[in-house]
Amino acid sequence: MEQLERCGRGLRAALAAGRVRRRLPWLLVAIVLLGSALKDGDLVPETPMRNKRNPLNIYFVKMAWAWTFWLLLPFIAVTTYQFAETKYLYGPTKSALTALRRLSALLVGTAVWYVCTGFFMYIENLTGTCSTSGKLSEPHRLYATKQECHQDNGIWNGFDISGHCFLLSYCALMIMEEVAVLEGLSIDLNSRLRVVVNGLFVSLCFLTMIWVFMFLCTAVYFHDFSQKLLGVLIGVAAWYGTYRFWYLKPFSPGLPLPNIPLSSKKYSYSR
């Protein structure tokens, strides 16, 4: 438990003053630019991460939203309820309603994920052609979708916006916003809840590191530059439109407590 506490304290210190949150969007865009340049210049070494069947891709990236959703769900519920009750002196009923309101951010995230991935598939189907001979120069135009083409062992050539760049950037930015609840608040919960919050916080931070690492792998090994750039820009736009615009409005899930914009937060740390 002491190691978990020490790890959580170190990670909270790394989030001090919101520097990570401010710089992460720019870091993701820079990764796409640099990674694409390395890929186009054929300067990337052969590693197991070039294989789409690598374990991190299969067991984490393919289920990125599920991992993000199920770790954020208890974290948001516990921290919002406890902080609403202890810091804002809300009663149990109002604290529970506040927690439910904040949890609706996960429903918004699910809708963003579903709509955007569906849009990406639509664009790929709309712009693609199928070649059953395996030669892209001889397209077969009788196939309406990528799935139909693959059923006949064809090759589909369409504009494939990087779903990985979109989802990994959006998940990483969303996690950083939600764990920011610990930036300006000491964890003065009872010992059991303290362990739970610290465990979830550390897990979310390491999950974010995995997302950023796999985002880097996508940037240097897969997709064309325009596909990756558009993917990350949509991810950043989805984050900005929610946490920097809509969630500031009264009728929204709201920002993580304390509900103060990043630029005006006062940061103080326990131990």
From TrEMBL:
GO CC annotation terms, alphabetical: endoplasmic reticulum membrane
Signal peptide stretch: 1-41
Keywords: Endoplasmic reticulum, Hydrolase, Lipid metabolism, Membrane, Signal, Transmembrane, Transmembrane helix
GO biological process: lipid droplet organization; lipid storage; phospholipid biosynthetic process
Transmembrane segments: 63-84, 105-123, 200-222, 229-247
Oxidoreductase listed as a keyword: no
Membrane topology, from the record: Multi-pass membrane protein
Alphabetized GO MF terms: coenzyme A diphosphatase activity
Chloroplast listed as a keyword: no
Subcellular location, record wording: Endoplasmic reticulum membrane
Main location: endoplasmic reticulum
HAMAP family assigned to the protein according to its UniProt record, in alphabetical order: FITM2
Protein name: FITM2 protein
Phylogenetic placement of the source organism: Eukaryota, Metazoa, Chordata, Craniata, Vertebrata
